[in-house]
Each structure stands twice: as structure tokens, then as C-alpha cells.
Amino acid sequence: MSILLNQSYVPFDLGEINPNTTVLEWLRSNQLVGTKEGCASGDCGACTAVVGELVNINNKDLIQYKSINTCIALAYTLIGKHLITVEGLSEGEDLHPVQKSMITENGSQCGFCTPGFVMSLFALYHNEKSLDSTKINDALSGNLCRCTGYKPIISAAYKSFREKEKGQLDFYERNQSEFVEALNGLKNQKNINLRFNDGNKTLLFDAPSNVNDLSELLSENPSANILAAGTDLNLEITQSKNEFSHIVSVNRVSELKQINEQDSEIEIGAAVSYEEAKSVLVKNWPDLDSFLERFASLPIKNWATIGGNIANASPIGDMAPVLIALESKLKLRKGVSSRIIALEDFFVSYKKTLLEPSEFIESIVIPMPSNGERLITHKISKRYEDDISAVCMAINVKGIESSSLSVKIGMGGMSGIPQRATELEKVFKESWDKDELLEVAYEALNREFSPFTDVRASAEYRLKVSAGLAKKSSLMLQGYAVEDLAHFSESKS
User: Fold this and answer.
1) How many other CB atoms are found less than 10 A from the CB of residue 239?
2) How many DSSP H helices and E strands does the chain contain?
3) Distance between CA 171 and CA 89 in Å, rounded?
4) What mean pLDDT is predicted for residues 362-388?
5) What are the backbone dihedrals phi and psi of residue 431, each rounded to the nearest 5 degrees, phi first?
6) Cα separation of 221 and 203, whole Å?
């Protein structure tokens, strides 16, 4: 099974490897050691590489480049794609503009994190026509450095773009048509069925290309592990040292990678990444722009899928509370049959869902917002971005200007599942513009939830901060600007 690797148009065979092998492990075992292992959990960015995939824009095939964390991506999930590592940037002794800029701007000290930064800047260099601090911060959101303080790295980003503006194309821009042709040649790798025998056991990897074949495969193998991107599930491999005996990847299933925007609803395929879904989500719910910035780093959002995040059923998965507040539904498929359920009913208990054996999430269906609808989201975490939530809250309010006020609230981090806060909805609807909201919100939350205490927050903190977020939301609805809310209690005293 083949990929394109760095500057070669000739398909490179990944070889017969354990299906649990990560991209990082495969690279380093093949002497491509510029890509480093730091955390093995997608947090530090030392392992960052870039993946190129074909996209069709205005009936023309182009290559879209995106940064990914190779430590939590499986090698076989790159079949048919273009993998670029730091070894693939220079042309002989002539360094890439990004590499030159890192040198001239003193963007590297110990050097361990440098290849990851270079690859994130390389993706930025290819994906943007203009540059500002927001785009740079987003591109580097998944890269950590303990030496430079980031300023020289940011300077390197600006300098590389100044070089780009001179009109000199890099190797991949000059030769895009050849890479497009080569990637098109890899499309004949339809359904992928791989078997690996290590002498003691046989490990399986399947990657069907359409939803009917996926459904049939899962019907025949109900105990198989369904893998979308695996940004969370693959930690079982890298952190817990576990091994999946049968992996069924859905990231090649065409139907699961589609977004259909209709008059009354948006249907997002389960294998659509967060970055791919961002534009349609933010267009309809502008508040999600800042929320998705905090959701995860760009390499994670480039790879992680909405369906995978939901199916993983983490009580601290940030998107589920938002989708619950938006009254979303799930389209589930088993064999030739489909059923649609409310997302809020999908989660049963910790890591347990309504999915039956051989059943999978086909799509997420979100009703279009109505006139006057307002979605407010909150995320409480120790770091501002790229961190796990202690509490996540999404409040969706309709009819604020009328007597028919409707409130839907989704919560994460407050119980063993992402959960709708029905008691809080009642008191918010009754007291959203009253001084006593903070007190009655706390009481409602205390009745409905029994939060846990862990390293991120105590149970009491979770209750109090959630009540505070309800109050903050009410002030936002009353017209207070977000930047004014920090001074609200002082001005009231």
C-alpha cells in the first residue's frame, strides 16, 4: 500500500507493518529522524509533519496541505496521500524559505522542537496568501518551545512570507501538477484489506471506500475497532501500550466525508474533520469561531473528526455539549438499515452509547438557526487553548425578544457523559434577567449533577463556575460586552 513521500512522484510502499504502527514510528524506523517524539499524545508538536490530499476546486484537482501530529496518526491511514517531512523541504543545499527564515531570525535554540515548527510554518506558507498574527498563532497552536519565547519564530513566519511575495515558488508549488497526477494514480487503491502476522497472532486493517462496503464489513466483524482519525483512540497505543487486533478505518469512506447544507438543516458526515467543518459552522453560529480556536490545536483539528469525537463518548469532549444545545441528531447505520436519534439520548453512561454491535455514526444533522437564535459557548481549562476542559457549557437561546423564550443547555465535565442540563434550563428561562440567577443556577446544577473531583477541578469548583457561566451568559444576552464582564461585580458593588 503506497503513499507519496517528500519530493518523489514515485509511490512509496509502506511495507508490511503492524497496523498499530504510528506515522512517527514508521518514519523513524525508516531513518527519517528529523521528526521527533516529545509527548506521544499530540500535545507538543515535535512530531509535526504535513499531509497533502487532493481536493477539487472549480473542477480542477489541487493539493491541500495540512499539518498533523504523526505521533497519534496511524501509518496505514496515510495510504493514497502525500507525506512531507522536514527532510523533504530543501533542494540539495538550498534550504526552503521557511528554514532560511528560522535561521536568520534565530528561531531555534536547542533544536528539538524546530522540525515541528518548520513543518507548521511550511503548511502556513502553502495555505495562506497573506499573513497576520492570528493566522500565525493558529498555525503554531500545536507547537511548544521551551527556549525561544516564540517571538523569533513568529518573525520567521513573516520573513518567509516576504520571500514568498517576491514570486519565487518552492519545489511543491513548481511541481504541483506532477504531484496531482501521481496522487490520482493512487486512487486505484480502493478498499484496503491488510493482514499482518507477527508469528503469534494476525492483526487486521481494513479501509473501505464507500458506506455500503463499510456497513457490510462491520456486520461481518462486530468486534472490530472503528477508527476515524484516532486522535484520542490512538492514545491506547502510544500511552497505554495496547494493541488493536482489527482496525476498520473510515477516513476513506466518501459518503462520510461530505457536508450537505440545506434550507432546514446541515448534515455533516462522521469522517469530516473539524477544520473542514469550521466554515459552515461559524457561518451559521459565529460564536463558534473563538470556541473552535480553543477546542484544539490546528494539527488536531486538521485530523480529528466530529463523528469520532462523539463516538468516543468522552465526558469532556467539547463538541458534544454544543451539538446537544443545537438540538442535533445522529444518523446511525447498521447493515442496510438507518435510524435517527437525538444526540442528547446517545450517551448512556461513561464511555457507553446507544450504538449496537456493527452500528456506526453516518452523519450529524444540525437544524439551521432561526431568526433571533443566539448560541453562547464557554470553555474552562487551565490553558487558554489546546487543553482539556474542566467544564464546557453551550447555551442556545431562541425568542429572547418575545414571550416564547426557549433555552437548550449542553454541559461537559459535569458527569460521566456529555449531558443536557434540563434543570438549569428551567431556572435560566425564568430568571435569566434577574439578580438571583447565580444562586438559583447553582441550586439547579447541584440538584441535577454530581460532578467528580480530579486533577483539573474539584466538584465544588465545577458547580460554582458553571453557575457563574450561566450568569455570564445572561449578561451577554442583556447586552454587556465580553470584555466588560470581568469588571461587572466590581461595578455592582
Assistant:
1) 12
2) 18, 20
3) 8
4) 92
5) -130, 25
6) 13
Where do we find the cell 469550521? 278
Tell me the CA end-to-end span of the chain in Å, nearest whole number. 68
* Total residues belonging to the chain: 493
Nearest to 398 by CA among 348, 365, 432: 432
**Cα–Cα distance between 326 and 363 in angstroms, integer?**
15
Q: pLDDT tens digits, residue range 404-442?
A: 789 999 999 999 999 999 999 999 999 999 999 999 999
Structural contact between residues 365 and 328, judged by C-beta atoms closer than 8 angstroms: yes
> Side chain identity at 292, as an amino acid letter?
L
DSSP code of 40? S
CA distances from 272 to 192, 289, 294 (A): 20, 17, 19
**Pairing status of strand 246-249 against strand 225-227:** parallel
Which secondary-structure segment (H or E) carries 217? helix 211-220
Residue matched to cell numbers 439547579: 444
Residue 409, strand partner residues: 395
Residue 279 has which C-alpha cell?
466554515
DSSP 77: G
Q: How many CB atoms lie within 10 A of CB 356?
A: 11
Alpha carbon of 298 to those of 41, 66, 446, 464: distances in Å? Answer: 14, 9, 36, 31
For residue 450, which of 465, 462, 438, 467 has the smallest C-alpha distance?
A: 462
Cell of 316: 469532556
Residue 284 in grid coordinates: 451559521
Q: Name residue, grid cell 495555505.
A: 127
Backbone angles phi, psi at 165, to 5 degrees: -65, -15
- Residue position matching grid coordinates 487558554: 384
Q: pLDDT tens across 85-111, in order? A: 999 999 999 999 999 999 999 999 999
What is the rounded CA–CA span in Å between residue 325 and residue 72?
Answer: 30
Q: How confident is the model at residue 484 (pLDDT cuts 50, 70, 90)?
A: low
Q: Is the model more confident about 329 or about 488?
A: 329
Q: What pLDDT does residue 45 have?
A: 95
Amino acid at 105: E
Q: CB under 8 Å, gap of 24 or more: what pairs does 278-286 form?
A: 284/368, 284/369, 285/326, 285/369, 285/375
Per-residue pLDDT band at 483 (split at 50, 70, 90): low
- Positive or negative CA dihedral for 297, 303, 305, 309? negative
Q: Which residues contact 60 (CB under 8 A, 6 or more apart)?
A: none
Q: Report, in angstroms and rounded to the nearest whole number, the Rg of the chain calculated over CA atoms.
A: 24
Cα dist from 179 to 182, 183, 313, 350, whole Å: 5, 6, 38, 45
